[in-house]
């Protein structure tokens, strides 16, 4: 099944710095490699930390749902295909949970996509749609289940199950929640307690020759950092916690070297 991205260009035309995601060689393999080198290879300097990352148009990929080619060709028709998050989306919308796309499912999903300006609004239960639902459910109180330990100091919470990150101090959420993309099955983001030990604003992976803007390392080569493509994929990262550019930029100003990070849960397979 060939997948394509149908994008809506921002006002003023396609003048932005971010490259389009690469065309996949097989379904559901959009991804950007992360830095997985040991920390000893890094030689940060005060000057390096002062360099600002290259800019990309904010929101370029935020609401673009990757859909099968046959759906992209039918811009008006409702999708008849079962999405990778079909059951989850059906449950969230209180539909019959059978994991199979129906006309009723498509209409309900399409209404949701139109309400939250997800493009294309074809009714396909993809990663963007499911991520937005997760975010909406968590927005008022992301730590309602008490999974992230409450401390008097700042704790960056990484919920692998819901693919969300926020920062709390005591019971007060001081940042987020925001959507993220954590490590895939073969390269999982390490769970438990960690500490932000190095921040590098304009980091570049020497292993993958890939930019890692606003990188904040907390466990070996694993870090919070922005990506210039989409974080909404069914395949995870190489271990880092990938973020949208604007979210990573804001988190950079919230966390300090020495702040604690707590990671828990399990990302869905992929």
Which overall shape is indicated by the principal axes computed on the Cα atoms? globular
Q: Strands of the largest sheet, in order across it?
A: 5-4-3-11-6
Please give the number of β-strands.
Answer: 11
Number of helices: 6
Question: Could you list some keywords that capture this structure?
Answer:
four-stranded mixed β-sheet, globular, alpha+beta
Note down, in words, how this protein is organized:
The protein is an alpha+beta fold. It has six helices and eleven strands. It has helices at residues 46-50, 69-73, 86-92, 103-115, 127-138, 245-254; strands at 3-5, 66-68, 154-159, 164-169, 172-179, 192-195, 198-205, 210-219, 222-226, 241-243, 260-264. The strands form three sheets. It has a five-stranded mixed beta sheet with strand order 5-4-3-11-6, sandwiched between helices. A four-stranded mixed beta sheet has the order 7-8-9-10. A two-stranded antiparallel sheet has the order 1-2. A hairpin with a 4-residue loop joins strand 7 (198-205) and strand 8. It is globular. The model is unreliable at 6-50 (pLDDT under 50).
């Amino acid at each position: 099944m060939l997948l394509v991205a149908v994008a809506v260009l921002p006002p003023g035309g396609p003048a932005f710095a971010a490259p389009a995601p690469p065309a996949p060689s097989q379904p559901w393999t959009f991804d950007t490699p992360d830095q997985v080198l040991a920390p000893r290879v890094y030689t940060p300097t005060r000057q390096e930390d002062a360099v600002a990352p290259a800019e990309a148009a904010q929101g370029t990929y935020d609401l673009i749902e990757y859909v099968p080619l046959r759906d992209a060709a039918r811009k008006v028709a409702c999708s008849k295909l079962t999405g990778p998050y079909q059951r989850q989306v059906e449950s969230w919308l209180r539909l019959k949970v059978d994991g199979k796309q129906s006309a009723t499912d498509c209409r309900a999903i399409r209404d949701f996509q139109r309400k939250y300006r997800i493009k294309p609004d074809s009714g396909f239960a993809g990663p963007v749609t499911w991520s937005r639902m997760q975010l909406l459910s968590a927005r008022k109180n992301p730590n309602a289940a008490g999974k992230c330990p409450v401390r008097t100091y700042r704790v960056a919470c990484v919920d692998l199950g819901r693919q969300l990150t926020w920062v709390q101090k005591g019971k007060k959420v001081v940042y987020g929640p925001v959507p993220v993309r954590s490590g895939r099955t073969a390269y999982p983001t390490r769970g438990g307690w960690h500490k932000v030990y190095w921040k590098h604003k304009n980091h570049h992976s020497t292993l993958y020759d890939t930019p890692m803007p606003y990188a904040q390392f907390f466990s070996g080569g694993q870090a919070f950092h922005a990506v210039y493509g989409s974080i909404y994929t069914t395949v995870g990262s190489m271990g880092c916690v990938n973020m949208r550019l604007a979210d990573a930029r804001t988190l950079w100003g919230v966390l300090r070297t020495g702040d604690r990070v707590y990671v828990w849960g399990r990302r869905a397979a992929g």
